[in-house]
Amino acid sequence: MKKFIYTILIMLALVIAGDWGLGCWLRYAYRHTSHDEIGRLNMICDSVTADVIVLGSSRALHHYVPSIVTDSTGLSCYNCGFENEGIVFHYALLRMLQQRYSPRLVIYELTYDYDIQFLYERPVNLKHIHTMADLRCRDSILASVDPWERVSMLSHIYPYHSLAFTIMASQKPSIYDSPQVDNGYIPQFKQMRHSSDWQFQPQKLDDRIDELKLGYLKKLIAENAGHLLVAVSPRYLSPEDDIYGIVEDLCREHGVPFVCMMSDPIISRDITLWEDDGHLNHTGAQAFTRKMMPHIKQILTQNNKK
């Protein structure tokens, strides 16, 4: 019996040692990746100190041109938008940045399905939050999504278990390293082709509101009132609708500016400005960013008077 117990203890020790060793190697490899999406996130977490930062999904990444913001305000600007990421990730990313410094203005590009709507087929993505080892509130954020995360995070391998191949593939330059990248902004240069019978299907406000997402949106707004601007950029041929009423009410409650340009009468109807029905091309992004500048300048001016 004792031999059996000793065997079990030795195997357990080997498992723990293996988990620790491989986990440490994965963390080291991850933290020393300087290319692709992982390298971009490392750089943002470690180095960005811009006066103005942009957060949000791919619509943030491809719609806000930092050089236009800088030319217009004289302030540095960095686009921290991330493909396929919503409010939970961006709340964590902002908290990570705020451990180092306080941006003068945070622009949050809000996307309904990533930030409000419940989508069974697209759960909250935690893979990048797992890797934010220096984020002091990381474990509480993870546990709010899934209580079992506290147990899973005891493993050193677990935070990187879905990223091993991505880490290996991120050791060479990618689109994120292109000379066309403007302080995090990724320009798109294609023009959407339009079929004469194509019609935009508007999003509808229904009962599929994700209380977790909404809770983090409330936290983002309440904790950053005074230096936050919440915006919705245009969609192609988007009709007027009221799906963002809940956001407008939240922003009004905390005195946060909310700018909804989803149905902009010029940009949303000009096919030459679009890569696809949800993303502007570079020409469209430049036009949209210039239209946003009066709103950006207004909040900066108000902050200077305080």
Give structural attributes.
single chain; 306 residues; Rossmann fold; 5-stranded parallel β-sheet; two-stranded antiparallel sheet; 7 strands
Notes on the structure:
There is one protein chain. The longest helix has 30 residues, at 2-31. The protein is elongated, with a radius of gyration of 21 Å. Strand 6 (274-276) and strand 7 (279-280) form a beta hairpin. The protein has helices at residues 2-31, 36-47, 58-61, 66-73, 87-98, 112-115, 127-130, 138-145, 149-152, 164-169, 211-223, 245-254, 282-305, and strands at residues 52-56, 77-79, 105-109, 228-232, 258-260, 274-276, 279-280. With 306 residues, the chain is of the alpha/beta class. It has one domain (2-305): Rossmann fold. It is built from 13 helices and seven strands. The strands form two sheets. The protein has a five-stranded parallel β-sheet with strand order 2-1-3-4-5, with helices on both faces. Strands 6-7 form a two-stranded antiparallel sheet. The protein starts with a helix and ends with a helix.
Query: Which fold does the CATH topology refer to?
Result: Rossmann fold
The main pleated sheet reads as:
5 strands, parallel
Q: What is the rounded Rg? A: 21 Å
CATH C-level:
Alpha Beta
Number of E-type strands: 7
The strands making up the biggest β-sheet line up spatially as 2-1-3-4-5
Number of helical stretches of at least 4 residues: 13
CATH architecture: 3-Layer(aba) Sandwich
